[in-house]
Amino acid sequence: MSSGEPFLITGEYRRFAEFCDACRQYRYIGLCHGPAGVGKTLSAGHYAAWDRFEGLPSVWYADDEALAAFDGADTVLYTPDIVNSPRAVADDVTRLCRTLRGIREEPRRRAESAAAQVRRAEEMRKQAERLLEVDWFAPQAPRDAEPTPEVVREARQPRLAPVRLILVDEADRLKVPSLEQLRDLFDRNEVALVLIGMPGIEKRLARYPQLYSRVGFVHAFRSLRAEEIRGLLAERWPEMGLTLPASGITDKEAVAAIIRITGGNFRLLRRLLSQIERLLGINQLLEATAAVVEAARENLVIGTA
Question: What angle do CA 17, 45, 204 make, to 5 degrees?
Answer without folding.
Answer: 75
